[in-house]
Amino acid sequence: RGVSGAAVRERFLRLSSAFEEAINPQRRTALLRFADGSLKIVDEDAFVAMMASWPPRETGVQALQAYVPSAGAAGTVYRNSYRVVSDKGRTATQTHSFTTIGAADAHSGNVQVGHDAMVLSRSKAMRLNQTLDAATRSVVRFLESAHHVRILHAQLDYVVDAESQLWLSWIGDVTTVAGEAALDLTLIPGLSSEKGEGRDSWLPRDAA
């Protein structure tokens, strides 16, 4: 089913207005993701002007998302990296954080963020890391079941808002396998070899 510009405009403005003035005084409303990895955050006025045409006339746009103010420093994003590390399906996760809004743009509603400006820092918030690990594994299992593939690697970005609500912001750098390799990871080079029962116990048998 197609998505109308009017519906997107109404939903984004409604979500933006739901955040209190103290949380989002700049009235940041939307986030644009570009193919080169850069981002652009726009306020309500810029968003309304941009939505005068549908789809927006922005070169290289991959996605248009509603802006969600983060808890803590403005524009804080948590990136949870997931990868399969053994032929029995053992996985490893790691969380880093980065900010999309620098100090110079703290009071601006319109921010341009280059890919190189996103500097990753290892997250030391143990409880949050565990929450993100669990969320990522749930997302991975859903996607694997829905698309009948095995995900070997993925990076999932999250935003935590002022109410401690977790928002899945983006899924990128995904590597998948299908068919026999999805059911038998020993067919994939580079994974460590382990004995015993692995994660195949829950993978749908129709993954091939």
Descriptive report:
- This protein has helices spanning 5-18, 44-50, 126-147, 180-183; strands at residues 28-34, 39-43, 61-66, 76-84, 91-99, 111-113, 121-122, 150-160, 166-177.
- With 208 residues, it is of the alpha+beta class.
- The strands form two sheets. The protein has a five-stranded antiparallel beta sheet. Strands 3-1-2-6 form a four-stranded antiparallel beta sheet.
- A hairpin with a 4-residue loop joins strand 1 and strand 2 (39-43).
Short summary:
With 208 residues, the chain is an alpha+beta fold. 23% of the residues lie in helices and 31% in strands. A 5-stranded antiparallel beta sheet has the order 7-5-4-8-9. The chain has a 4-stranded antiparallel beta sheet with strand order 3-1-2-6.
- Beta-strand content: 25-35%
Radius of gyration: 19 Å
Helix count, DSSP H or I runs of 4 or more residues? 4
Q: What is the typical, i.e. mean, pLDDT? A: 91
> Could you give the distance between the termini?
28 Å
